[in-house]
Write a structure and sequence with these properties.
four-stranded parallel sheet; 169 residues; Rossmann fold; alpha/beta; single chain
Length: 169
Amino acid sequence: MKILLHACCAPCAVKCIESLRGEGITPDIFWYNPNIHPFTEYKSRKDALEKYVKDLGLNLIEQGGYGLRDFLAAVAVDNRCAACYEMRLKAAAEYAAQNGYDGFTTTLLVSPYQKHELLRETGERFGSQFLYRDFRPLFREGQTAAREAGLYMQKYCGCIFSEEERYLV
């Protein structure tokens, strides 16, 4: 089965990749994250994922670049998370469909901090090719493995709004 795994960062990818491999699936990794800000955070996450994927011998597909303006235009609505999930999963679904993948999924499904049901609904809106997995039980183990591997560990979801919320508390 040819699967495209949208990845938000290396730490979230660790156990998602391991879990899929346990099912006999070797995913190609898809980087499209215009939500991650500021640029230094975007670059740190992208660089860490590039190194991790290379070390595993997996394929990495990078789409788009730093997308501050596109992201802010897309989330100028009441529900920023819904708009963010929509942009990223739509890009993954389109790439998967155009490039012969049997399906796609996302590392966002590993985080207990994401809106899991909204993620699932968003992915399923793009058709039966969405490979749903509840990776959340693997989250803590994945974070530990990422720390042990020396991967860059971020302190917030990625968007400028979540950074503000993280540091205002």
